[in-house]
Amino acid sequence: MRLSTISLLILLVATTISATAQSKRFISKDCGFRVAVPNGWTMKATDPKQCTFSLVSPDADNKKVEFSIKKDTVEQGEKDLGFEIDEGKWVLKGDQNADAESIDSPSWKGLIATLGQDESSSNSDHETRVLLTSLKGRIAEFIGHIGQDRLEGFVNGFEFLSEPAS
After folding, report:
1. Domain of 115?
2. Is residue 46 part of a domain?
3. Mind listing the pLDDT tens digit for each residue in 72-100?
4. 4/68 Cα distance (integer angstroms)
5. Is 27 in contact with 157 (CB distance < 8 Å)?
6. Which of 29, 38, 49, 140 is least enclosed by beta carbons within 10 angstroms?
7. Residue 13 maps to which CATH number?
8. Domains in the chain, number
9. What tens digit of pLDDT does each residue of 20-56 get?
């Protein structure tokens, strides 16, 4: 048991990262995903057994994105993050509801919305939430304070692998 836990930690720490011009590739076979990490940003496994991660900005403000990958239903992901259908369209519920946009890639479909957008504060002060669903019954939940455009750019580099190793 201890050997398998150590092996899991070594696998997560020694995750495959290959450099490209704009980003490096982070792969977690155990959690079943890969993602392009912008240069200078730091990817951390916050709870390897639960497949939760943080992506931390190199900026002095240390803005970050928290995300988790799990086998769950779309409905549970919607509930977890606060997405609902209101008057025939997707919204993100909060102090002020935010209209959600549909996004997709070859390995997932999703929703993205940002709470609290107004003229008085910068885009990165707002909380953006993203729900991605795979075709094989897995979801990825993202919450970030880095601005919707930056978070959407990160999410566009995300891909579910066919199956997690564990």
Report:
1. 2-160
2. yes
3. 999 999 999 999 999 999 999 988 889 99
4. 22
5. no
6. 49
7. 3.40.1000.10
8. 1
9. 346 799 999 999 999 999 989 999 999 988 999 999 9
Position 141 in a domain = yes
Give pLDDT, residue 23.
79
112 closest CA partner among 70, 73, 71, 65: 65
Exposed / middle / buried, residue 29 (Cβ in 10 Å: 0-12, 13-18, 19+): middle
Is the pLDDT higher at 1 or at 67? 67
- Is 62 part of a structural domain of the chain? yes
Distances, alpha carbon 28 to alpha carbons 22, 53, 56, 136, 149, in Å: 20, 10, 17, 17, 24
CB atoms within 10 A of CB 19: 9
d(CA 74, CA 79): 9
- At 14 the pLDDT is 35
Residues 6+ apart with CB under 8 A from 24: 17, 18, 36, 37, 39
Q: Which residues contact 136 (CB under 8 A, 6 or more apart)?
A: 160, 162, 163
Of the candidates 81, 71, 26, the residue with the CA atom closest to the CA atom of residue 51:
71
